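Lab notebook: predicted structure, single chain.

Context: the supervisor wants predicted structures on file for every construct in the current expression panel, including those that have not yet been purified. This is the next one on the list. No modifications to the sequence; it matches the entry in the shared construct table.
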Amino acid sequence: MVPGLPDRAPRPRQCVVTIHRLYLAGPDVFRPDAADHGRRLATLCAEYGFEGIFPLAALPAGLPPQALARHIFETNIAHIARCDAVVANLDFFRGPEPDSGTCFEVGYAVAQGKTVIGYVPESGSFAERIRGRHPAAVGAGLKDAAGWELEEFGLPLNLMLGVPCHVVVGDLRAALAFLQSGAATRKT
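Prediction complete. Output recorded below exactly as produced.
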């Protein structure tokens, strides 16, 4: 809205979205026990009345690496399209940021109008969380070790994740309980 001008933006219609199928995003697919872990996550989803879709499936044999990468990408995008919401493990992965593939999946889901619930293991702002778990990455004040600005908006993640996502502290169980409570709605 521009000050002094009438607000002519269309108002979003309110509607109730039933959430049943959940795409389980996160770096969990890289675990040594990824398949078993994925089954445990899907079982936990079922305990809460949801169908969890873990993005690890049997891969076609004989594809060259780039073709296999495209297959995985297209399969995961199709999974997100068929799900009602995304629940994302946004814990730090290989440094003081969430997994980049998970971040893409979250952004894609937000762009598709999906509800997204992220979970992190501890409370605190993004800068506080980095200081607590990756102190070597932090410099003086609100600077990182290289002198770049540390984002500090009081959000637990970068604003491009913290604004459109419902972020809960805990694990998948905490995210499912939040989702089951009915508190999750599309934020954007």
